[in-house]
């Protein structure tokens, strides 16, 4: 099982970079939230875990609205796929 470890995210682009590097998102990934959902829900082979540490700092850096949107997206992927785990650490 592969694990994508996200420790420090100050921008959405930094999150995309971490996911691309660790989960081998496909070349057609469009660096937007809709494309992220599509790629994580269908294009990335499982099983895999996304472990996001320092989420309190990420929420501050990204802003509450964007952070909550991203977390909701990741939770939806994990809910839809039996082979995806999401771990969030403050």
Strand content: 15-25%
Mean pLDDT: 97
Radius of gyration: 12 Å
Our measurement of the CA-to-CA distance between the termini, rounded to an integer number of angstroms, reads 23 Å
Question: What name is given to the CATH topology?
Answer: Barnase, Chain D
Low-pLDDT segments, ≥5 res? none
Helix content: 40-55%
Order of helices and strands: EHHEHHE
CATH class, anyone? Alpha Beta
Question: Strand order of the main beta sheet, please?
Answer: 1-2-3
Number of strand elements: 3
Number of helices: 4
Molecular shape: globular
User: In CATH terms, what is the architecture?
Assistant: 2-Layer Sandwich
Q: Major β-sheet, in short?
A: 3 strands, parallel
Describe, in short, the structure shown.
The protein is α/β, with parallel strands linked by helices and 90 residues long. The protein is built from four helices and three strands, in the order βααβααβ. It has a three-stranded parallel sheet with strand order 1-2-3, covered by helices on one side.
What does this structure look like?
The chain is α/β, with parallel strands linked by helices and 90 residues long. The protein has helices at residues 12-23, 33-43, 55-62, 64-80; strands at 2-6, 48-52, 84-88. It has a single domain (2-88), classed as Barstar-like (Barnase, Chain D). It has a three-stranded parallel beta sheet with strand order 1-2-3, with helices on one face. Helix 2 (33-43) packs parallel to helix 4 (64-80) and helix 3 packs across helix 4. The chain is globular and about 30 Å long.
